[in-house]
Amino acid sequence: MKQNRRKKPVCGPGCVIGKEVRIGHGCTIGACVVIESGTVIGDNVRIDSFAHLGKETLKSVNSAVTGEEETEPLTVGDGVLIGTGAVLYRGAVIGERVLIADYATVREHVSVGKGSIIGRGAAVENKTGIGRFCKIETNAYITAYSTIGDFCFVGPCVVTSNDNYVGRTEKRFLCFKGVTMEEGARIGAGAVVLPGVTLGRDALVGAGSVVLKDVPPRAVVAGNPARFIKEVPEEQLLERQGWEEKK
3-state DSSP call for residue 47? Predict the structure, then answer.
């Protein structure tokens, strides 16, 4: 590992690298990668072809949650893997050993903790925090203003929302609120979680559910609307998985 850290970065053909970009030792960069000005990349990072790092925000006149504030350069930690076609915006902070799979999008003012996985085609919207060792599976949608704690699981094609007014009335601008997942909370495939909902520690949402209200810690809910089914079995609790030492 020490020998690898001393290696110079290797870039494929057709890359575009902006001014004042910092790239660590041992990095491998595929073909036609774009790295915007100021981006900071740690050691031993792999960036596959056609990824775009440090992308500037697109601000529509009709956007309700994309502001004009200044953003710091994108920061990518050591040992990160970034897939083909992934887009990481300026202002995001990516922790060590994170995997961002092919065609995933990570917006501005997003933090992703150490060892987490952002699956293929997943979208993480702005002003969202994702903890350590989380799994955000394929095509999941994490809405803006969400908070996801350590060791959480979001199944494939999960949808979260932050606007109870569905784009109507001025009042909505005061009420945007994403989803909160406390440590070890899990959401099954294809579930929908509405704005402002909190999933307690070790809570579990069944596949295909529609969650309208907070879920207590350790509760299993399922259905449309989601209802309490039982408590999470003892052997599935976070404290029984031996993961705490990863912190």
Answer: strand
The answer to whether residues 74 and 40 touch, using CB atoms and an 8 Å cutoff, is yes
> Cβ neighbours of residue 185 under 8 Å, at least 6 residues apart?
149, 152, 153, 199, 200, 201, 202, 203, 204, 215
Three-class secondary structure of residue 246 per DSSP: helix
| All residues at 6 or more sequence positions from 107 whose CB lies less than 8 Å from its CB, including other chains | 57, 89, 92, 123, 124, 125, 126, 128, 144
Q: Are 96 and 111 in contact (CB under 8 A)?
A: no
Three-state SS for 142?
Answer: strand
Q: Are strands 227-231 and 219-222 parallel, antiparallel or unpaired?
A: antiparallel
Q: How far apart are CA 171 and CA 135, in angstroms?
A: 34
Question: What one-character DSSP code corresponds to residue 191?
Answer: -
AA identity, residue 230? K
The runs of H, that is alpha helices, within the chain are 2-5, 172-175
Backbone angles phi, psi at 46, to 5 degrees: -110, 125
Interatomic CA distance for residues 171 and 167, integer angstroms: 10
For the chain, percent of residues with pLDDT exceeding 70: 89
pTM beyond 0.85: yes
pLDDT band at 64 (very low <50, low <70, confident <90, very high): low
Give which of 189, 239, 241, 177 is closest to 214, Cα–Cα.
177
Q: Which two tokens stand for residue 247?
A: 């912190």
* Cβ atoms within 10 Å, residue 210: 15
Q: CA 100, CA 112: separation in Å to the nearest integer?
A: 10
Q: What does the longest C-alpha to C-alpha distance in the chain come to? A: 59
